[in-house]
Task: inverse folding
DNA sequence: TATATTTTTGCAATCGATTGCAAAATGTTA
DNA sequence: TAACATTTTGCAATCGATTGCAAAAATATA
């Protein structure tokens, strides 16, 4: 009933055993200079008295927090929540804790989040950039103080920061080539802010694939928006109102692709025969929509695990961060009905 | 270039201004006893010298962490990531930080997570229970020390802990009644572990609706599984192999409902005419599947916001937790094609 | 037994911010 | 100007764990 059970400290243990707090402190963390017997007594007393270490005191003294910060654009997307789950697993196993915050796709909030992380003295920071982040001055303080900074997915190339991502260029190249193989001659591309590597690279892959296959690039077929469901809907109308409609669409994200498909289906466009579709991300919805959506699969969970492991290895084993400049994870083209034209060779 | 820029402390500021650290400390937090002019000087010096408060020292002295812990079954579900996003927003605005961990639906991990939260001295804890948690002894230490504990969605009734959830009973009652109205006479129900309020209440609502409408309850039509996509697939086969097939299915979760529908569609079952379907959660996939899935909508984001606000109000304004015993949020029946039989009156 | 070695332990300072209480500075009133 | 009230400030202890260094205890060697 007592709200006020007193906290047990190493001094209480020391008193009880008639030894010094220093010995207790060392004993608790298995310091080699402490006698085995004394250690046993200390551990027993600690357990019996319900001791729990005060991490503030320890952090204050040791100047490290055992906390890793994470800043992501949004927590509630299928991909990102997979990433977070992967990070959480690795970090938790290493006895670190996570501070998580979301930038809500705004650079302004990202800046303030970074500041909060800095003031809370995270031991490391993992970041996937907001939609409109134009520079990373707000992360300089970390770099200057030698606090490890790792980028993932939406990265920023920096010599001191490892980056974990996929080969967006190649994935986009492959998926575009696939559409061309299926007989598409006018392929539209819907993408996001070209400041972000993920979207710029996908656009580049799309354009290169067109070029290599001698398909002329038509800039009325390139739409840049925020890749939301609403934007997908609007893009559908925009594309259907063109003087010459596309016969294929490659969207840089499944959510947007699917709402675009749905809007087109309502206007009686036949997918894939009138217009073939391809997305990106292998979102759960992509194999629910009919026809199922051709897309690029890459594992958020693994990306989270990998990024976290690099961070933890640096913090725990003092691994050199420079050594891992960047880490490219596997991605895979998944061909489904949305891009398989009837008359095609495949 | 210097990795080792020294941290600025209140003592450095005090020295520079020839005043005491106590005054600096008070000045920085706008203590009323400090002269306006002195305050201005302190703030200016702090800014100029790049001071940042050391939260460890502060926490150590104040015995509070400004950290709120969250334990959820999984981070990567559409619903839960919405909840987390809502929590993050409220908590962040109040200048608190979040420790997040996932129990992965296992009581064992939930126990160890709770312990970690306790040792890290969170100021409050928010929990949605794991699939198989059978008691909450692992949370007693929080209750005993007066650390506020709030349950949401998958709750545990406890006089000292507010709970935020929806009326699962009524929602299930409504959705089952709707299926009956549509002419269903043999309604199967797929649900999860009946230890969890959310599933037990939904099952209860289902059964009561049957009873009130004089539809006999057939226990071969009640399937309890883990509500995963795989389980939905298996349930489809189980139901189709019954001597008399159901003409309606109410699943306690959309993910499972959709995989069940997909499996049935593959066997040429016509939905809704052969078998009507209803789910729960309004997952994004529910309006992508064809036919679109009738379901119960409840806003994870709002649930997260609400739960977090109760916590924050308690911590910041010292609101009484007892006062809010439980908070029932709105949920809404969303009728879509999956449950609209052709010959029905509606 | 005396001396040298090796193992164990303790002293005391340190990490920065906070706060009760007393003292100093300033302002007010008679 | 004296006496008193009000504002501002500073002293010094405190929150617990950590750690360099020295001292004590235990063990080994001559």
Result:
């Amino acid at each position: 009933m007592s709200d006020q059970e007193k906290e047990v400290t190493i001094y209480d243990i020391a008193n009880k055993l008639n030894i010094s707090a220093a010995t207790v402190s060392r004993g608790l963390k298995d310091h080699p200079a402490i006698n085995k017997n004394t250690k046993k007594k200390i551990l027993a007393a600690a357990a019996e008295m319900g001791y729990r270490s005060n991490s503030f005191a320890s952090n204050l003294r040791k100047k490290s927090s055992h906390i890793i910060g994470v800043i992501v654009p949004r927590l509630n997307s299928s991909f990102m929540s997979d990433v977070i789950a992967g990070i959480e697993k690795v970090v938790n196993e290493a006895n670190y804790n996570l501070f998580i915050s979301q930038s809500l796709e705004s650079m302004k909030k990202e800046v303030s989040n970074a500041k909060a992380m800095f003031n809370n003295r995270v031991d490391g920071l993992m970041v996937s950039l907001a939609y409109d982040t134009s520079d990373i001055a707000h992360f300089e303080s970390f770099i200057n103080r030698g606090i490890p900074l790792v980028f993932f997915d939406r990265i920023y190339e920096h010599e001191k920061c490892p980056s974990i991502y996929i080969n967006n260029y190649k994935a986009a190249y492959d998926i575009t080539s696939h559409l061309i193989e299926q007989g598409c001659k006018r392929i539209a591309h819907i993408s996001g802010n070209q400041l972000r590597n993920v979207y710029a690279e996908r656009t580049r892959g799309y354009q290169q694939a067109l070029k290599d296959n001698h398909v002329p690039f038509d800039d009325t077929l390139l739409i840049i928006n925020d890749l939301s469901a609403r934007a997908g809907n609007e893009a559908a109308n925009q594309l259907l109102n063109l003087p010459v409609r596309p016969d294929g669409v490659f969207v840089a994200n499944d959510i947007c692709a699917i709402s675009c498909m749905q809007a087109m289906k309502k206007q009686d466009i036949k997918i894939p025969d009138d217009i073939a579709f391809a997305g990106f991300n292998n979102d759960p919805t992509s194999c629910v929509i009919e026809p199922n959506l051709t897309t690029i699969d890459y594992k958020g969970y693994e990306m989270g695990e990998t990024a976290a492991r690099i961070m933890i290895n640096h913090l725990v084993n003092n691994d050199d961060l420079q050594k891992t400049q960047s880490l490219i994870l596997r991605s895979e083209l998944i061909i489904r009905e949305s891009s398989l034209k009837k008359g095609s060779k495949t």
Remarks:
- Residues 19-23, 26, 33-35, 38, 57, 59-63 of chain B lie near DNA strand D (CB under 10 Å from a C1').
- The mean pLDDT of chain B is 92.
- The domain at 10-53 of chain B is CATH 1.10.260.40 (434 Repressor (Amino-terminal Domain)).
